[in-house]
Amino acid sequence: MNPEEWLKVRSILESALDLDPQSRSAFVDSACAGDERLHREVLSLLNDQKQSDHFLEEPALEMVRQQMARDQAMQDKESESALLGKEISHYRILQKLGGGGMGVVYKAEDTRLGRHVALKFLPEQTVRDAQALERFKREAQAASALNHPHICTIYDIGEYEKGPFIVMEALEGSTIKHRISGKPLASELVVELGIQIAEALEAAHSRGILHRDIKPANIFVTERGQAKLLDFGLAKLAGATTEALASQDLPTATTNFHAHDLTLPGALMGTAPYMSPEQTLGKPLDARSDIFSFGAVLYEMATGQPAFSGETTGQIREIILTREPVSPRKLNPRIPAVLERVIIKALKKRPEERYQRAAGLRTDLIPVRGEIGPRWRPRVVMASLALLALVAGIGWKLGWLQPSLRLGQIQSIAVLPLANLSGDREQEYFADGMTEQLTTDLGQISALRVISRTSAMQYRNTNKKVPEIARELNVDAVVEGSVERVGNQVRITAQLIDAPNDRHLWAKSYERDLRDAFRLQDDVAKEIASEVKVKLTSQEQSRLSNARPIDPAASEAYLRGLHQLHGITAEPTDTLKSQSIEKAIQYFQEALSHDPNDAQAYSGLADAYYSLSTFYRAPLQVMPKAKAAAEKAVELDDTLAEAHASLGYVSIHFDWDWARGEREFRRALELNPSSSRAHSGYAQYLLFVRGRADQAIQELRQAYALDPLLPQAHGDLAWFLFLARRYSDSIEAALKVGRDDHILALSYAELGQSDQAIAAADRAVKSTRNPVILSQAAAAYALAGRKDKARAMISGIEGQARERYVCGFNVASLYSVLGEKEQALAWLERAHRDRSD
Amino acid sequence: MAREPSSPVSELLLHWGNGDRKALEAILPLVYNELKRLARYHLQQQRPNHTLQTTALVHEAYLRLAGEKSLQAKDRGHFLGIAAQLMRWILVDYERNRRAAKRGAGATHVALDDGIAADRSAGREVDLLALDEALCRLATLDRQQSQIVELRYFGGLTIEDTSEFLGVSPATVKRSWSSARAWLSRELNRREAQA
């Protein structure tokens, strides 16, 4: 065919193609009339056209791309089957986990250490020359130094015939990219993962390591919900070329297809939608560039859509440089406003306007935890209520609805042991002390019932979930957090959790000088109070603001003392218990040597002496010291509830000054309505002094509710009931406790159920050498008609009394039950001399 | 991309537009490299269901080479013309290398070509080497038609862009394009039948 012939053919062909397919052949017949060759030519072209309707419609490049993807898949499959089961270095390849731009990942077994690892084979062309390989090794080394729970750990690097590989921590789960796949993640998840990633970034940045390629595909979420940042430093490997690409410095012209620059764009554009503006411009990068990329990831997590998208990398780059992304809440109205602000700030075009450090972003995210929760839906409810009210002309008087709608009702709280993040077991007491302080501070708020520390402390290192703990402690909300002490700085993170729903209501991180640590807890307490919408009285308000600076050494010793004192119930024998108390006394004295005006230390000292007196030492020996300490404590700080409680105990048990005892307990309860110690002291006053058994029992039950796990620390309800002559109730209570056999024995004996009384007394005798319990068990034998057994025990008890203090009242009652009045009187005399209680 | 308004490339394009053939010689390797790099990159993106916008890619290459501020219509036109031609070279070269590699690889050859044959009968797969040759023959019959195919198929230009570039009406481009496709399709089918 020549051009002239073709011209003829194509003009008929084109006219035919303009027509309906049905009328084409008639048209061609008439147009080519007489020219057989032309007719054949046109018809054959029309036929071909029909067969390949979409011929060339898809641009060549796209076709090649698909071809290439297929080739690649084929090749991958081949190298995969070649690799599986193979041993490279000392890693046995088990299974392919996935592949991406930065290489293919396999699960492997480290045959030396016998653990599972992930092996990442870098694309062959990535590390081609020795220099690049060297750079890669240096980066991997730096990244492997990052030991952080939210950074995927690099164990090793190696080389094999087709290039280098990285040995990493094996993870189970999926990447954020998979988790998002077009849908927003729950805000709770965005915040929790965001905080973890920010921590990882901060750790890396503080060591001078940038990630440079933060994107959803590089963040892994394990099955346990832990974020793990992947591929640290890998971007740098290709990143050095980034600058070259964007600068004037274009590679030398060459027509060689295998020129060195083939992988260049991957470095710059592999993750275009997550690049910072400065990165797209090839400028030097710092931590703030990672923060921008992280912001883009947060955006996508929260909205389900990329912050920046476009047809080409050029367009994306343009958009990153010039356009603000659609505000996240327009795309997903459920995003809390605070979270939106965090995202927007991270995505500022100018690095100076962004978060300067990942830690700052983290700090801002933490309170969002509290933002998320039941208040979101209620807020919508509130809005419609407001509208309704206006329409109905009722006006806006529904404000009272707000608190209950927002949070349900939080009336009771437990402060779980704050975790000691110092990594130093020696600091445990400090975390405990901070817990104690926060508990005390919250307890001062009359609208809240705050579980006592002794019960809450049982949950140290627990695996139980918040709702379960809250059920056991019978509280609406739980405070948990951590304490980290570095030198003279203290950082406390606290969060308030709505217990039944396990939802974060509020969280905040504080950092202070150690001297202000206690004041810090006051702030935490106040914020929690405002969060749960309880009203602070002005007195409470000022008490919380009143904390004075403390002496670090004094507080340290005080907290150690407290630790000892609260630990005594756990000690198995009397000897160990009394040793523990003696140790506590030493610590309190040490605290006072550092700060002679520490009211808390005096109060602790008073309580410690009092504890000695009940079972181990004659009151006359120790109670004067308790009294002096308690009085000093009150004198130093009249607003300290513990001090007044200490003084109350001294007054009723030693001074027998009933009026003062009552006054002190009442004052203590006024200052801290959640003080279980004050409640149980007042209960003792009511029972022993006033004989008001019912009121006393009610008071004791309050102490129990505040300290549900360690009721015995506050005196025995069963014993109270027994003294109140409510024998069947005391039996019930004693059976519940399970170790009050002496009370059971006495109660059964009083009820005339001798067999049971004797059996219980047998058990009590077998279980202890404590002279008080033995005296009571013996009295039970006597009451149940086994005076022989009771008498047989007297010598043992009196023998003990020669070596240690034994409360004379108990022995006196035993003798009186046995009808031996003289002996009884002698012991009463002795009890009076000892000032036994 | 803060670059001088008159980058070497836009300057060269200008000279070439004014009839300086040497300018084209200087430009070609630059554009070639850039396009190849971009093509290579985009080819490596394994995103299914995402059609590659060749025009956008070419524009991107242009922006990267010429700088953003010198987007003059004339420059751009020249550039698109060169880019389409270069893309043709790049992709044809690529295909040639690919086949060479395949022959070396041996076993996969058959399986892979079976796949291609199946795709081709479905109208999706085009034998680029055969097309390149057929396009050369088409140029001897009608130079403009061959150019239209180059611009549309390799350069990814729309009917409108093509018409603007060639200075002919869109209707003419459309008709030429469809008859050229018919001719090329027959050429390729014939070749296959002979093979």
How does this model look, in words?
The complex is a heterodimer of chains A (837) and B (195). Chain A is of the alpha+beta class. Chain A folds into 6 domains: 3-51, no CATH class; 77-170, Phosphorylase Kinase, domain 1, CATH 3.30.200; 174-246 and 268-364, Transferase(Phosphotransferase) domain 1 (Transferase(Phosphotransferase), domain 1); 376-407; 551-715, Serine Threonine Protein Phosphatase 5, Tetratricopeptide repeat (Alpha Horseshoe), CATH 1.25.40; 725-834, Serine Threonine Protein Phosphatase 5, Tetratricopeptide repeat, CATH 1.25.40. A 6-stranded antiparallel β-sheet of chain A has the order 1-2-3-4-6-5, with helices on one face. In chain A, strands 10, 11, 12, 13, 14 and 15 form a 6-stranded mixed β-sheet that branches. In chain A, helix 1 packs across helix 3 (36-51) and helix 7 (187-205) runs antiparallel to helix 11 (287-303). The termini of chain A are far apart. Residues 238-270 and 373-408 of chain A have low confidence and may be disordered. Chain B is globular, with a radius of gyration of 18 Å. Chain B is 78% helix and 0% strand. Chains A and B meet through helix 1, helix 3, helix 4, helix 9 and helix 12 of A and helix 2, helix 3, helix 4, helix 5 and helix 6 of B.
Question: How is the topology of this model organized?
Answer:
The complex is a heterodimer of chains A (837) and B (195).
Chain A: H1 3-18, H2 21-31, H3 36-51, H4 60-83, E1 87-88, E2 91-100, E3 103-110, E4 115-121, H5 130-144, E5 154-160, E6 163-169, E7 173-175, H6 176-180, H7 187-205, E8 219-222, E9 227-229, H8 234-246, H9 264-269, H10 277-280, H11 287-303, H12 313-322, H13 328-331, H14 337-346, H15 358-371, H16 376-391, H17 401-407, E10 412-415, E11 419-420, H18 428-443, E12 449-450, H19 453-456, H20 466-473, E13 477-486, E14 489-498, E15 503-513, H21 517-531, H22 538-545, H23 552-566, H24 574-594, H25 599-615, H26 619-636, H27 641-655, H28 658-671, H29 676-689, H30 693-706, H31 717-723, H32 727-737, H33 741-750, H34 754-767, H35 771-783, H36 787-803, H37 808-817, H38 821-834
Parallel strand pairs in A: 10-12, 10-13, 11-13
Antiparallel strand pairs in A: 1-2, 2-3, 3-4, 4-6, 5-6, 7-8, 8-9, 13-14, 14-15
Helix pairs in contact in A: 1-2, 1-3, 5-8, 7-11, 7-15, 11-14, 14-15, 18-21, 18-23, 23-24, 23-25, 24-25, 25-26, 25-27, 26-27, 27-28, 27-29, 28-29, 29-30, 30-31, 31-32, 32-33, 33-34, 33-35, 34-35, 35-36, 35-37, 37-38
Chain B: H1 8-17, H2 21-44, H3 54-66, H4 73-105, H5 108-121, H6 128-141, H7 143-154, H8 159-166, H9 170-194
Helix pairs in contact in B: 1-2, 1-4, 2-3, 2-4, 4-7, 6-7, 6-9, 7-9, 8-9
